[in-house]
Amino acid sequence: MTLTAILLVAAALIGIGLYGTLSQQSFVMLMMGLELMLNGVLLAAVGFWSLAAGGVPTGQLLAIVTMAVMAVEMSVGFALITAVYRNRQADMTESLGTMKH
Amino acid sequence: MSVVDDMAFWIFALTAIVSGWRVFCTDSMVRASFLLLASFIAVGLIMLLLGAPYLGIATIFMMGVEMMVMALFMVMYMMNPAGLNPMVMVHQHRFSIGAGIAAFVGLAAVMLVTDFADNPVASDARVVTDLGKELLGDSMLIFETAGVTLLATMVASVILSSRSGRFGPADEGSVPPPLEPGGQPAGRLPEEGGGHGHHHH
Amino acid sequence: MTPIVLTMTWVAFLLGMAWYIAVLDGLWAAAREGRQPRAPLANPLYRCATILRQQSNLTEAPDLLNWRLAPALYAGLAGTGVALVPFSSASVLADLEVGIVWWGAVEALTVVVVFLHGWSANSQLGLIGAYRYVAIGLPVMLISMFVLIAAALPAESLAVPKIIESQHELWNVIRQPLGLPLFLLLGLSLSFRGPFNYADSADLADGTASEISGAARLVWEFARLAMLVATAAMAATVFLGGYLGPVLPGPLWLLLKTAVVLVLLVALSHLFARISPSRMLTLIWIVLMPLAFIDLVWAGLVAL
């Protein structure tokens, strides 16, 4: 369990998450992609904290902040989905085309 | 690092990656949410191996709740609620695969050419106490900012998702999207000025 | 205690207490109907045998993996919950630095598992039960977490043994009087009993369990009892001083306190009627949640 191995796993999670974020049509699935990317970020942060930074407390703080970001992303994301659904009765990114020209 | 720890790490790592990938392959939205939860639990367990008990268990705890809520929203808003019909809902698929691979390769390359410090956390470090002292000590401003941000998020979420707005009801005149581009709206159409006057609420 | 003795104590505690709840339930039902209880002590075992002899059921296109796994996972979560409880000052199966957080994870995953159980059977009643349960289970879980954080305050630690140590002079039930009643509601909610039985209630023909029989049903019913045992043991530990007590040895004190809490829980589950989910939600968010906040502020002021 070296730092390289952990970062490799984190990079894979970020890569898959990016794929999901870009490819999914459903807003909720898109958010799952974002969550997966943040999952990778969380793992990388804790990996650095544990194996390269000698356990400085601020490393753990970074992970806590990442979790807060996740919570904000979820909450605002679902609120937006609800707003879109009220307006378009669909949970599809394609249903939002009014800003296109 | 013992052999058992190493094996456990690779098992958790594989679980995290494979279930993370399966999230975007499954037909069922509920399965997708819980596969993502499996990925998070595996990462939480890796954190335990890395000597971060609070963060690891808090991740499992938080993600359990988040993914439960995710599954509910999935079922609520999807056209294919239980996810029992096969379906593919993707766009710009090739580009996305490319971007995902590029991100992975790029990050991996940066990581492989960088020389990271080798400074593991001491085995007798009181990490949970440290974290608590940091959160409510030197970094209190950051922690409190996160708290206030979460409060602002709650207010914003309620405003965004409420039905009544400044410009009338949010769902006024909304119709379902067509099944084909440019077609008729899907589903039942609202009755046009029906003479019955029955309103079931 | 050596690890083997400890593990055996843990198993015996789970099984024994689950049997005890089943006996209490049987006695209560007999008393309510005004009849003499028939073989009250052996009755739970007869029921086990009856369930095991049933044919196991299969619905149309279930999510078989999750459906089969859910009862086992539920029982496993109850087991890990009990593992957090110290039997005496030196004997605890899972001596975690962050035991309270782990208990929170057990609660959160329980909600997930119960939802999975109802959803994966691919039947309407199960899904309705699962949906109702999530709506009620999540806020009740939040309440219990606030209450537990309050209990961790005087101990200045998230470890369960430390929380017991902090109760040498004064039990938390007196120091934070709101804590225990709110936590008992969690017990009813986690094992969906009485007023909090939104998952497996009679109006849904057993809800999430409506489609299971045979071994799966036995595990599910046992898991419900085991989860009640886990919450009661946790309540006895966090609010009633756990193994602390004069004269008698520690494990016996824990046993006694858990038994008393279980009587309370069984009484609550039989005495109170269930209200409609929407009214229960209002009650939880408008009344109980602020009470949990008051408990937390109270604990903070006392700790100052």
UniProtKB/TrEMBL annotation, chain A:
Taxonomy, superkingdom: Bacteria
Assembly, per entry: NDH-1 is composed of 14 different subunits. Subunits NuoA, H, J, K, L, M, N constitute the membrane sector of the complex.
Sorted UniProt keywords: Cell membrane, Membrane, NAD, Quinone, Translocase, Transmembrane, Transmembrane helix, Transport, Ubiquinone
Matching Gene3D superfamilies: 1.10.287.3510
EC number annotated for this UniProt entry: 7.1.1.-
Gene Ontology biological process terms from the UniProt entry: ATP synthesis coupled electron transport
Described purpose of this protein according to its UniProt entry: NDH-1 shuttles electrons from NADH, via FMN and iron-sulfur (Fe-S) centers, to quinones in the respiratory chain. The immediate electron acceptor for the enzyme in this species is believed to be ubiquinone. Couples the redox reaction to proton translocation (for every two electrons transferred, four hydrogen ions are translocated across the cytoplasmic membrane), and thus conserves the redox energy in a proton gradient.
Stated name of the protein: NADH-quinone oxidoreductase subunit K
GO cellular component: plasma membrane
Membrane-spanning parts: 6-22, 34-55, 61-85
Family according to the record: Belongs to the complex I subunit 4L family.
Statement: the UniProt record of this protein carries the keyword Membrane: yes
Protein location: Cell membrane; Membrane
Pfam families, alphabetized: Oxidored_q2
Membrane disposition: Multi-pass membrane protein
Catalytic activity: a quinone + NADH + 5 H(+)(in) = a quinol + NAD(+) + 4 H(+)(out)
TrEMBL record, chain B:
Protein name: NADH-quinone oxidoreductase subunit J
GO terms for cellular component: plasma membrane
Location relative to the cell: Cell membrane
Pfam families (UniProt xref): Oxidored_q3 (PF00499)
InterPro entries in the cross-refs: NADH_UbQ/plastoQ_OxRdtase_su6 (IPR001457), Nuo/plastoQ_OxRdtase_6_NuoJ (IPR042106)
One GO molecular-function entry: NADH dehydrogenase (ubiquinone) activity
Entry keywords, A to Z: Cell membrane, Membrane, NAD, Quinone, Transmembrane, Transmembrane helix
High-level lineage: Bacteria, Pseudomonadati, Pseudomonadota, Gammaproteobacteria, Salinisphaerales
Recorded topology in the membrane: Multi-pass membrane protein
Complex formation: Composed of 13 different subunits. Subunits NuoA, H, J, K, L, M, N constitute the membrane sector of the complex.
From TrEMBL, chain C:
Gene Ontology biological process terms in this record: aerobic respiration
Leader peptide range in chain numbering: none
Transmembrane segments: 6-28, 72-94, 100-119, 131-153, 173-192, 225-246, 252-273, 280-301
This protein's name: NuoH2 NADH chain H
Pfam families, per the entry: NADHdh
One GO location term (cellular component): plasma membrane
Membrane topology annotation: Multi-pass membrane protein
Example GO molecular function: NADH dehydrogenase activity
InterPro entries documented for this protein: NADH_UbQ_OxRdtase_su1/FPO
Keywords: Membrane, NAD, Transmembrane, Transmembrane helix
Keyword Ribosomal protein: no
Similarity field: Belongs to the complex I subunit 1 family.
Record localization: Cell membrane; Membrane
